């Protein structure tokens, strides 16, 4: 793996991100209630006013990615004609999946159906047979190909620019050069775009990490009687910080790749044990039902805002989910691009939209269906536990009600531990690359800078947990940032199509020669 030499920190992006973070987090810490009220109103306004935009954009991404994979462009190789993939298909998919879903998918895989069961879409009675039928199908939809298409959209132009045109920067601003003049993107315009992207990446992953800690704390309480104190939560963060800092220090091949592989292995064991020792027949039948219901409602759920009925389900679930995927998409675009040398456009689309989707479906089919079975069979009242004790206790109760329950809960918190570590690893790597100058194609950012961003991502949730500040406020900020990202990704997609048409019929060496001439003209 290539190490960086002669690189430097982009001070504008670095200091700009820190200033923006401090400017957002300090008011949240000092005025938590006021901040939460204001941001909640802004978030509700964004979901109401631009909900249609999030839905239409996501559906458009779904259509475009299918077109890109099945057209003649799908065969375009990202790199030189004789370039081989840097990673095996399993390692590549593991790093891609772990970065895209993190610890969230295991948590929501167990509990999400409960929320849909007690608060279903309009026209369905809560806790009815119909609500039970639709509950797991909605998870298939929200975590399915539409979400992965949004992730895929920025990955395609970034990977093409990085490996095919040999643009020596991992910056999404540069993917807009088919629409915005490159001279502007090399200047302040590009820096501002990358600054906003970097801030959104940091904010979204801080929120994710902070929300994952309570589940691990609950698991430790149920399994080992460890009380849920401030010290416990801080201890959890510190321990997994030591794991991922070591991993990010080692780099892509020695650290992040291996951690991602172990993450997938443990998750497979968890899901496999639930499937084999749990209600296997029910899981298979419910998966078939869920898939059928999702397919039958796919287009309606993709575009329905419920503007007349105002039930709230579409707004706070579908629209919110799609906005969240859009906010995280820039990170995924950069990450997938970086690890996809030697792959084709079709391979990226297939890995994300099919492999990523099937991985998620496996989790929801096994964990979600078994939880619903336990509720219907009267083994555990997950609804009552959720309403009276909270979601983390409901998750623990569902898993421990199954055969090998405590083993399953231990595997779950282990998986979440590894997931949190791999999420921070990949995020810190991309943040360091995004805010570095002088990186050549294939090089890694310097070690101290990767470690710095890993520590920064951890330090903020630690501070917010200590002062008991709400991480949901930071989460809402991330959703607000999804609005400008929609327009940015539209520009990126238009630029990507222009690049493909421009390069059609040219050899790799001809493309590089032309790009070098263009760069010389810009620098004169």
Brief digest:
It is built from 20 helices and four strands. The chain is mainly α.
Please characterize this protein's 3D structure.
With 524 residues, the chain is mostly helical. It has one domain: Amino acid/polyamine transporter I, CATH 1.20.1740. Helices cover 77% and strands 2% of the residues. It is built from 20 helices and four strands. It has helices spanning 11-30, 32-49, 51-70, 89-101, 104-118, 129-142, 145-164, 182-185, 188-224, 230-250, 252-277, 280-303, 313-338, 345-376, 382-388, 391-400, 405-434, 447-466, 471-503, 508-523, and strands spanning 2-3, 8-9, 436-437, 443-444. The strands form two sheets. A two-stranded parallel ribbon has the order 1-4. Helix 4 (89-101) packs across helix 11, helix 9 (188-224) crosses helix 13 (313-338) and helix 9 (188-224) crosses helix 18. The radius of gyration is 22 Å and the shape is globular. The chain starts with a strand and ends with a helix.
Notable features of this structure?
single chain, 524 residues, mainly alpha, Amino acid/polyamine transporter I, two-stranded parallel ribbon, two-stranded antiparallel sheet, 20 helices, 4 strands, 77% helix, cell membrane, transmembrane helix, BCCT_transptr, transmembrane transporter activity
């Amino acid at each position: 793996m290539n190490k960086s030499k002669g690189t430097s920190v982009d001070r504008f992006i670095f200091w700009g991100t820190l200033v923006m973070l401090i400017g957002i987090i300090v008011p949240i810490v000092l005025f938590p209630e006021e901040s939460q009220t204001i941001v909640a109103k802004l978030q509700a306004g964004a979901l109401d006013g631009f909900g249609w935009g999030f839905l239409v954009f996501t559906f458009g991404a779904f259509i475009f990615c299918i077109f890109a994979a099945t057209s003649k462009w799908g065969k375009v190789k990202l790199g030189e004609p004789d370039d081989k993939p840097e990673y095996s298909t399993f390692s590549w998919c593991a790093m891609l999946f772990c970065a895209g879903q993190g610890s969230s998918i295991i948590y929501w895989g167990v509990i999400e159906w409960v929320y849909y069961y007690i608060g279903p879409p309009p026209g369905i009675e809560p806790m009815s047979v119909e609500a039970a039928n639709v509950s797991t199908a909605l998870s298939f939809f929200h975590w399915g190909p539409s979400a992965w298409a949004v992730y895929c959209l920025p990955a395609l132009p970034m990977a093409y620019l990085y490996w095919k045109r040999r643009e020596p920067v991992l910056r999404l601003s540069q993917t807009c050069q088919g629409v915005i003049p490159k001279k502007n993107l090399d200047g302040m315009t590009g820096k501002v775009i990358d600054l906003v992207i970097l801030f959104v990446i940091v904010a979204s992953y801080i929120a994710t990490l902070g929300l994952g800690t309570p589940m691990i704390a609950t698991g430790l309480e149920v399994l080992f009687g460890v009380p849920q104190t401030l010290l416990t939560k801080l201890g959890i963060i510190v321990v997994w910080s030591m794991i991922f800092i070591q991993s990010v220090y080692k780099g892509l091949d020695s650290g992040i790749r291996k951690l991602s592989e172990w993450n997938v292995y443990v998750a497979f064991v968890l899901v496999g044990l639930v499937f084999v020792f749990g209600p296997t027949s029910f899981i298979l039948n419910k998966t078939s039902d869920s898939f059928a219901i999702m397919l039958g409602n796919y287009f309606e759920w993709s575009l329905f805002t419920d503007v007349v009925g105002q039930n709230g389900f579409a707004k706070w679930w579908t629209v919110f989910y799609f906005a969240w995927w859009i906010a995280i998409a820039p990170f995924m675009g950069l990450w997938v691009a970086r690890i996809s040398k030697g792959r084709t456009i079709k391979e990226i689309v297939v890995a994300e939209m099919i492999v990523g989707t099937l991985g998620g479906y496996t989790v929801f089919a096994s964990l979600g269906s078994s939880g619903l079975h336990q509720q219907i069979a009267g083994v555990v009242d997950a609804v009552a536990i959720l309403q009276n004790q909270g979601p983390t206790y409901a998750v623990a109760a569902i898993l421990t009600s199954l055969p090998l329950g405590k083993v399953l809960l231990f595997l779950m918190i282990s998986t979440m531990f590894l997931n949190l570590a791999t999420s921070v690893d990949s995020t810190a790597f991309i943040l360091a690359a995004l805010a570095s100058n002088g990186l050549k194609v294939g090089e890694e950012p310097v070690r101290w800078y990767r470690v710095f961003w890993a520590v920064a991502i951890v330090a903020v949730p630690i501070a917010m947990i200590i002062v008991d500040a709400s991480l949901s406020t930071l989460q809402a900020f991330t959703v607000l940032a999804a609005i400008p990202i929609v327009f940015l990704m539209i520009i990126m997609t238009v630029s990507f199509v222009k690049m493909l048409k421009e390069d059609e019929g040219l050899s790799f060496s001809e493309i590089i020669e032309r790009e070098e001439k263009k760069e010389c003209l810009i620098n004169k």
